[in-house]
Amino acid sequence: EVVRRVLLLGEGNFSFAASLCGAAGTHVVATCYESEEEVSGRGRAAESIRRLRERGAEVVFSVDCTKLKDYFLPEKREFDCIYFNFPHCGRKAGVVKNRELLAHFFHSSAEVLTEEGEVHVALCNGQGGTPADQPRREWHNSWQIVAVAAGAGFILSNVHAFKAETIHGYKCTGYRSQDKPFCVEGALNHIFTRSMPLPYFKPMICEIELESQKVSFQVPQVLVDKIDRGFLELNSNHPVRTIKEKLTAELSQAFPLQNIDYCLSLLHQGHLNGVCHSNIFWIILNPEETPSTEEMSNGLANAVLFSHVDFCRDTDKNGWVNVQEGCHISKQYYLRPSLLPYAQAIIQRGAFLPGTLHVLSGPVFRKCLITPYSMPVFHEMLFVCAVNRGTEKSCIQMLVNNIKTSIHSLHQTVSGFKLNINLQEEASFETTELNDFAAFESQLSRIQYFICMEIDASGSCEKGYCVGIIRTAHYELVSSELVVVFASLNLDLLAMLICGIPDWRMLWTSDTRFLRQFPRGKLRLFKSFSLYPPSYVHDVSFWIPDGEQFDEVAFHTIARRVSGEMVVSIQLIDCFQQSETGRKSLCYRLTFQSCDKALSRQEVAEMQLLFRKEIKQCLRVTLR
User: Fold this and answer.
1) Crossing angle between the packed helical segments 491-499 and 239-251, to the nearest 10 degrees
2) What is the pTM of this model?
3) Where would I find the FDX-ACB domain in this sequence (predicted)?
4) CB of 57 within 8 A of CB of 29?
């Protein structure tokens, strides 16, 4: 039989420990800071201690919660649950001293807690400083428990009311270090779990077949943890695959359907008309010997076979890259920003059945500004169907109706919130409504319709988002003119809206608690396992080089890279131009916050220092 080991700290009269003791499969270790002589004089303490010992519990005195490993042998250090109810430094200690106590306690707990263990901390109303506190104290006047715990690698995974009246025999004591009760009305129990560590990504080589030969390239650092995750593969439980499969099954009832499942190259070559170069992840290849991982780590990769071009470039009048001399380039490629060119190539080769709905899907890559719904990588699902000229409108209507029915069906299995999906013509679609997905698609070619999805304000989303687009094109095929209808869907955005996932980064988390919520073929409302993550704000101001256009997308991409996607917002808060010299200064405010990992103030400070260094080097700005 598996026995849960439970550690209780800071017991005042051991009445809470006594209420837990005796539960089947639980071994209780109850401790307090004072000596046995000091505690025994408190009301009911001696009785609780006697009951604990009779039931096989361990009772340990004079235990310092900041040095826990010192009190237990190595084989007895691992606890499944640690309780610390109403911690306090004693007497009239202020919030700063109590924060320090909690900080040391969390670091100490990390040394004696199992990997899947929990830390329960009960605090009086308002002390924690989270939105769960009602009323909520000002941040500086709270114990800032989530930020303090993050410093030791813990995230807040649950919070609920501490109901003293439901705990048999429990009586709180210890008001100002005396044997007196204190008010626990509105108190909260905060449940912490271990966070995945912040990732450190080594340089990564991706090997693919291109033009009948094997080539390698260095993956842009911001994409290292996303380039080859296999979310759409057969053995995947990821919600983007579930949505793709259910959409395919629904549409196959209305159209002859063919999945184009052969491997589509990650790299594309040639111009994409109208697409700004700053939105592209450029890759440079050389047909030379692949360097070793050690050589890459030593920074030799860019000089040997491959390179990811971020900033070493000039552009022509159309915004296309002219690589500078000395970069040893043979050909220019970029990570595919869309599946549309592949569909067009298939059509032009004639490998296409008129009247059949062809389906392509896979990840696409785009540099973009940092917003909650802007993704540097997402899974695109592209539908292509050729019809006789004059029948394209009925085809579009039929396709949209089936897509709407499928999405409604998916959403209803997940939640009862009201869902609206509508088709808007390009002329009626305001520029302010464009999200990043629609804005980029508008660069590729003219869009006839936008597929917009809106969930009622009481649900997971308060406004509408473009989740798909429809465009048409004319081709001369098989000696007759056909109109080809293209419909593109952003599967990641659909997954977020259907399952109530508030942050696109959560789709890419390596924490197993995410995928556990989506067993194969099941879509459910997502429940966050990291509540009220702390956020940290840093400002940066600088002079931009004279006569140069500031590349804001590159600025945001550097922020993504150096922070490991921990920057959630970048706002321009000031713009100043010297009248005498014409020099221009910009000031931006960066907000750092993780959606799934513990992020400490010190870690953010280091990211900010690196960010300042990188923008100075890569964008040639002068820091102020």
Assistant:
1) 100
2) 0.87
3) 531-624
4) yes
SS3 at position 26: strand
Place of tokens 């099941």: 522
Q: Which helix (H) or strand (E) holds 563?
A: helix 552-563
Tokens found for residue 421? 């999906």
Structure tokens at 107: 């670091």
C-alpha angle 52-54-59 in degrees, rounded to nearest 5: 40
How far apart CA 397 and CA 485 sit, in angstroms, is: 11
Structure tokens at 283: 């890759």
Helix, strand or coil for residue 98?
A: helix
Could you report the per-residue pLDDT of 577-603, keeping only the tens digit for each? 998 888 999 999 999 999 999 999 999
CA distances from 58 to 2, 48, 259 (A): 18, 12, 63
HSE (side-chain half, CA atoms, 13 Å) at 95: 16
Report pLDDT digits (tens) over 292-347: 444 444 443 333 334 455 443 444 433 333 333 333 334 678 999 999 888 877 77
Do residues 237 and 514 touch, judged by C-beta distance below 8 A?
no
Q: Rounded to an integer, what distance in angstroms lies between the CA atom of residue 391 and that of residue 156?
A: 55
Contacts of 289 (CB under 8 A, 6+ apart): 304, 305
SS3 state at 475 = strand
For residues 310, 313, 317 and 318, what is the CA-based torsion angle, rounded to 10 degrees? Answer: -40
> What H or E segment, with its residue span, contains residue 399?
helix 392-414
Q: Are strands 113-123 and 79-85 parallel, antiparallel or unpaired?
A: parallel
Amino acid of residue 148: V
Task: List, as one string, the DSSP characters of 402-435.
Answer: HHHHHHHHHHHHH--S-EEEEEEEGGGS-GGG--
Output b/e per residue, 413-433; b: 16+ Cβ within 10 A: ebbebebebebeeeeebeeee
Taking the C-alpha atoms of residue 445 and residue 375, their distance in angstroms, rounded to an integer, is 20
Comparing CA positions, the residue from 288, 360, 359 lying closest to residue 329 is 288
